[in-house]
Amino acid sequence: xxxxxxxxxxxxxxxxxxxxxxxxxxxNEAQPSPSGSEASETxxxxxxxxxETVTLKYVLPGTEPKEWQAVNEEVNKKLLADGVNVQIEKxxxxxxxxxxxLNLKLSTGEDFDMFHVxxxxxxxxxxxxxxxxxxxxxxxxxxxxxxxTVIPESVWSGVIKDGKTYAIPAYWYEPAVDGSFTANxxxxxxxxxxxxxxxxxxxLAAMEKVMASEAGATKPYLPIRGxxxxxxxxxxxxxxxxxxxxxxxxxxxxxxxxxxxxxxxDEFKNDxxxxxxxxxxxxxxxxxxxxxxxxITKQIDSANWAFMFGTPDKREEMQKxxxxxxxxxxxxxxxxxEKPHYRMMNxxxxxxxxxxxxxxxxxxxxxxxxxxxxxxxxxxVYGIEGKTYNKVGDRGVESIKGADGVNLYLQDEWMIGNLNxxxxxxxxxxxxxxxxxxxxxAQTFYAxxxxxxxxxxxxxxxxxxxxxxSDVMPIYDGVVEYDKGIKxxxxxxxxxxxxxxxAEYQKQxxxxxxxxx
Length: 517
Fold this sequence. Notes:
Helix 2 links the parallel strand 1 and strand 2 (86-93). The protein has helices at residues 36-50, 68-81, 98-108, 124-129, 137-143, 145-150, 153-156, 185-190, 200-213, 233-236, 266-280, 293-301, 315-321, 360-370, 374-381, 413-416, 430-433, 458-476, 482-496, 498-515, and strands at residues 54-61, 86-93, 114-118, 160-161, 164-165, 168-169, 181-184, 245-247, 251-253, 259-261, 307-309, 330-333, 342-343, 349-353, 389-392, 396-399, 443-444. The longest helix has 19 residues, at 458-476. The radius of gyration is 24 Å and the shape is globular. Helix content is 38%, strand content 12%. It is α+β, with helices and mostly antiparallel strands. The protein folds into 3 domains: 36-173 and 346-435, D-Maltodextrin-Binding Protein, domain 2, CATH 3.40.190.10; 179-343, D-Maltodextrin-Binding Protein, domain 2 (3-Layer(aba) Sandwich), CATH 3.40.190; 454-515, no CATH class. Residues 1-22 form the signal peptide. InterPro entries: Bact_solute-bd_prot1 (IPR050490), DUF3502 (IPR022627), SBP (IPR006059). Keywords: Signal.
């Protein structure tokens, strides 16, 4: 899932498509000839219509924005005007039902084309192992020249396995920001906490002070949602074994090139202990396992937290809680800040073509069109200028909201954005801007581009994932005490075949390392 669970900005540009009117056969008056631009536009549409026009059905998580249908109409007009024989249709799935409904669509062979993949939630490798996605390498070669121009080679490496390209990455942020947290100094100072914590212990102590000083009904819990969230890299900087990677919430990949069962590791135990303390001390929501993403989003947007893992986005919403807030009141920080910054993953968010898609080229054509120009990107991502957003300066944007305070339209950039085109809210916090700025000191972890193919352990992976959901995550989230739950969870993982999965991980990692020499 989006780990930053809600990166969202907003901005610019409507393209009005004007087609020449055909003469009415009942009209006796001669019709004027179309202007040069109109004639060109009409010719482009005719060219597109000469080919079969296909509908691209894009499945993604979230709630359909109020003005999507109006934006959809303009996007489809522009596609035809530009000679692209694709019409896009979105299907939004509520966050709470995302995994279940998407899996059902994939398993039943439902007719749809493209879907969003959050590598920190359910990985692309998982979908590949299930045979749920197509290799679109040939389509990219034929129909995607812009994709290869605006997406760096290093990012492509995160979706290519054995020469096959299984998705198109969203190149929307600097991965070295992962592992950071944002501190709300307004709430911290109110509780007498003047220093941003540098250790896990200091973070827990600071949250305890905040909770003790808060008398309101709405508590500033650490805004995290339980379930299938990824291992918490914010905490991992505290360990002597750092840097290390956790893949699929199953495999711990250490600096020494060794793979082990993440749930058996000391690092998992330490993470679980942190969240157990937080849960027992009522620093996380008592409903952490069932709380909805919309509730977490609302809490983050209102800035009702001392710390959040990631970066906040909606300054205007935050100002409703803290009207006098300043940029420096929200600082991006890391535990153990003396340690280097690492890029652990180069393609966190990607868009894949479903295996049952009848028109895999349509997804590539659409994304190639999207990244062909700023105006195309603006239209699909920000909507209709003057109706769903307004430009502010050269690169700024302000979304237009409805009476309920919700953006009339915005396609989340973290799903499909590109740093070459993303527009920034002029009031964006510095903590958020770090996402879109290259980190010259960052190092890339050696396994950042390692791509696990689960096809040899497909059944075991499915069984292990089931145990992770039912038995492991309640321990990790702190709801079940580690000592009381871990033996039963590990026994179930063993029975599910986790050792075979880890052995396959090790085999493939060894081959990957050998190929890099």
